[in-house]
Amino acid sequence: MKKLIFLIYLLFFSSFLQAQDNLKFFVKKALTNNLQLNAERKNFESSKQTKNISRSEFLPSITLSGDQTSTSSTNRKDQSGASLADSSLDSESTKISVEQKIFSGFKGLNTFKKSELEVKKANLLLKQVEHQTILDTTSAYFDLIFKSKNKEFNSLNVNLFERQVDSDSARLQKGEITLTDLAQSESSLAGARADLIKAKTELLASKTNFERVTREKSPDAKNLNEKALLTLPNSLNESLQLADINNIDLLVSKLDYEIAVKELNIERARLSPSASLNYSKSENSDFSSTIDDTDQETVKATVTWPIIKGGENISSIKKSSYNKERYQFILQDTKNRINTEISNAWSNYQSSESVLEATRAQLKAAEIANEGITLEYDSGNTRTTLELIQSRSLLLDARIAFAKSERDFIVSQFELAKQLGSLSIKSIK
Q: 109 lies in which domain range?
């Protein structure tokens, strides 16, 4: 019974560890820990407050003021030189005023609409960093798997050559091979050890990069899930259509143009008349000798119309107009650039899939060839030491190439999804 309980616990614990080491887990960690992403979150919240500030233009402004004055004098004299009694003067006043803007040449409305666009832009910039974080995490995740495999392949290669050197040393004593054959094996062993050192160094760099991206301790690559799937379009044309709707860079560029339009409208509104309504009520009390209270209510309507301001407004309108045209050109350039980037991402995705299939076939052929040559060499047939070394070298290259193509194929999917604007933690299967 205790063994059964232990097995159940072991299965549960191992599944828990696997869940902890999958891609989604580390993407969530990266999205939580990324400092740039947290900065963009604060920028998004700040933009929403800017929107609230612009909304205040439509609401009344209320001001309450008050003051109290106390003045005293002593040792005063009249014109004849006679002393007068000490005197004091006390007064207080309170005033409340309410101002409501009635019309501002649509300046307030355009300012509010501009702030709404800026909130949308801040949200897009936040998503942009989120997408980049997911892509960086995915790249670091599968690079860690690849570099770990690379180290294992090279370690296996070292072990094989160590055994070969031992075997060739024994065969040399029997006269089955020459000293040259042994020297070739020893040279290959030295080269394999050098490659292993390089592979270990690359693995360490990959772990460091993984920890930088996720701000989490690098896990054992053996526990990582080597598969990740995304739902992608079936054609380049479909990809271009999706990108036109969802690509973040393109959406930001469109918003920049719309914001520039609102800024132009705001500057034009500065030349329009504006009107406001003001109501105020004040109370004044004088306690100098007798109590004297004065209450006053005022209702005032104000209309202003700027005529000439040294040409400042006209220049501001021209500046905003040029700025709008600038962002119009930028938008068109962005569209062209995005189309090129989508085409490149799609081509890379397609070619990486073809490379994956080619390296899989290459690996299978290399395994069969190496197995045959190894058996023939060990049996003392016509296979030479050099042929065996070349066979193992080709097998090692094939293993590394296939592992690399697996990584590149998965990362190419995420790069395409990022360009399409469809990359999110929910999209990862």
A: 21-65+90-427
The answer to whether residues 295 and 95 touch, using CB atoms and an 8 Å cutoff, is no
How does 188-203 read in b/e, with b if 16+ C-beta sit within 10 Å?
bbeebbebbeebeebb
- The angle that helices 385-420 and 107-174 make with each other, rounded to 10 degrees, is 170
Residue 295 is given by DSSP the state: E
Q: Which residues contact 354 (CB under 8 A, 6 or more apart)?
A: none
Tell me if 283 sits within 8 A of 295, measured CB to CB: yes
Q: What are phi and psi of 383, to 5 degrees?
A: -65, 135
Is 16 inside any structural domain?
A: no
**Residue 199 is part of a domain; what is its CATH number?**
1.20.1600.10
What pLDDT digit, counting tens, does each position of 213-257 carry?
Answer: 999 999 888 888 888 889 999 999 999 999 999 999 999 999 999
**In this structure, are residues 116 and 296 in contact, taking their beta carbons and an 8 Å threshold?**
no
For residues 51, 54, 59 and 65, what is the CA-based torsion angle, rounded to 10 degrees? 110
Neighbouring C-beta atoms of residue 231, cutoff 10 Å? 9
- Render pLDDT for 332-387 as a digit per residue (tens, 0 to 9): 999 999 999 999 999 999 999 999 999 999 999 999 999 999 998 888 767 888 99
Residue among 204, 200, 221, 201 nearest 26 (CA) = 221
Q: How many helices (H) and strands (E) does the chain have?
A: 9, 4
Strands 274-286, 292-304: pairing kind: antiparallel
Do residues 373 and 387 touch, judged by C-beta distance below 8 A?
Answer: yes
Asked whether residue 417 is domain-assigned, the answer is yes
Number of separate domains in the chain: 1
DSSP 34: -
Flag whether 306 is in a domain.
Answer: yes
Q: In angstroms, rounded to a whole number, what is the distance separating the alpha carbons of residues 160 and 154?
A: 10
Hey, is 278 helix, strand or coil?
strand
